[in-house]
Amino acid sequence: MAWIYLSIAIVFEVAFALGTNAAKGFTRLWPSVFTVVSAVIGVFFLSLALKTLDVGVGYTVWTGVGAVGTVIFGALLYKEKITKGKLLSFLAIIAGVALLRLTSG
Length: 105
Fold this sequence. Notes:
The protein is mainly alpha-helical. The chain has one domain. 82% of the residues lie in helices and 0% in strands. It contains four helices and no strands. α1 crosses α3 and α3 runs antiparallel to α4. The protein is flat, with a radius of gyration of 14 Å.
């Protein structure tokens, strides 16, 4: 169940990051509300996951996969470029997350 909670937390981590961009420095009301709500829900589900997972594993997966998701959706929504360097970095993060998943009970 912890990995399901962590997956939900990751979705809200990505939503939080994308909302932060849309909020334009918290000068736009509804994107700002969306950002704060996403952050709260994401941290809540992360805390549920960390009841079972080691904090080092849970937090690393949360931030790593969240970062990859943010860059992918940033490219789709905000037309940000995905360079070869970014792509290589994503692959390294995904490999690290997979290894953490395989080696943590």
